[in-house]
Amino acid sequence: GVVGGACSDVTQNVYEVEKLEKRAKLMELLKEDANGTIVFVETKRGADFLASILSETEFPTTTIHGDRLQRQRETALADFKAGRMKVLIATSIAARGLDIKNIRHVVNYDMPSSVDEYVHRIGRTGRVGNNGIASSFFDPHHDSAIAGDLVKILEGAGQEVPQFLRKYSYG
Amino acid sequence: MTISYSDFLDVREEYPEIDYEIRGILLARAQNGATINEICDDYQKLTGLRFPVKENITDFLLSIAHVMVFCNENGTRIFNIMPTDTTRHLLDLVLNQKISERT
C-alpha cells in the first residue's frame, strides 16, 4: 500500500452526522454488534458522559482519558480485552502508546483534526488478516477542513467516497 | 416538600433521555460534585441543546433517581450521583483519577 496510507483491509465508512445526532447514530451501530468497539471522542468529560449513558442502557462501557492513572488505564484496557466491557471510549491522546490491537470496530465519534490522526486511529483495526471496520461521524459544521484529505485517504485505500464528502472537499 | 417524578413529566416527554444525561454529567464531575450552572453548561456542551428546565431546577434534579445534593459553606448547592450496578465501574475510575481543579 501507500506509505502512511490506511490499510485496505479496513472497511471505512464515513457518515454525515450532525452533533445532535451522533449519539443516536452510535447506538444504531452498536446495536448491530457492540463487541470490541473503540470510540474516539474529543473531551474527557464527553468520554465519561457517553460511557455512563451507554452503560446504563445497553452496553457495558469503560473509558480511558488523560485524567486516569496508569493503573486505571491498564484496568480499563484489561476489562475491554477480556470482553467484560464491550465498548471502550477514549480520547485520542490517552489512546497513544497503548497496546490496543485487533479492534473489531473503530468509531470516530468526533473526527480528529488531522488525517494523520485518522490513519493512526483506524490502523488499530483490521490487523493480521482480520477485516476491521472504521466508522466516522463527519459533522459538516466542524470537520469540513479535513474533507479534502479524507477523500484522498479513502481513494488511496480503494474505499467508496460518499458524495457529501466530495461536496465539502471542494469548499 | 415532596418532589415527585410526575411533577416533570412534560420535560421527560420532550426529552426522554434527560435522566440518563444528567446522571452522565454528574458522573463525569463526581470528584467535586457539580453546581446547577455547571450542570446546565455541560448539558449544552454535551447534548447541543439548551437545558430545558428554567425554574425549580433543584426540584427537577432531585426527581432523578440516584441524584443527591448538599449545601456547601457558601450556600451553594452541590449535586452528585450515587453508584448503580451498571455505572459503578465508571464512578470508581472518576473518583480515584488525578485530582482535578474546580472549574
If you had to describe this structure to a student in words, what would you say it looks like?
The complex is a heterodimer of chains A (171) and B (103). Chain A is α/β, with parallel strands linked by helices and 171 residues long. Chain A is globular and about 45 Å long. Chain A is built from 8 helices and 6 strands; from the N terminus they run βαβαβαβαβαβααα. The model of chain A is unreliable at 1-5 (pLDDT under 50). A 6-stranded parallel beta sheet of chain A has the order 1-6-5-2-4-3, sandwiched between helices. Helix content of chain A is 41%, strand content 19%. In chain A, α7 crosses α8 (163-169). With 103 residues, chain B is mainly α. In chain B, 43% of the residues lie in helices and 10% in strands. Chain B is built from 5 helices and 2 strands, in the order ααααββα. Chain B has helices spanning 9-14, 18-28, 36-47, 57-62, 88-96; strands at 67-71, 77-81. Chain B has a two-stranded antiparallel ribbon with strand order 1-2. In chain B, β1 and β2 (77-81) form a beta hairpin. The longest helix of chain B is centred in the middle third of the chain and has 12 residues, at 36-47. The termini of chain B are far apart. The model of chain B has no long low-confidence stretch (mean pLDDT 93). The A-B interface holds A 19-20, 44-46, 48-53, 55-57, 60-63, 67-69, 72, 75-76, 79, 85 and B 17, 20-21, 23-25, 27-29, 42, 45-49, 84, 86-87, 89-90, 93-94, 96-98, 100.
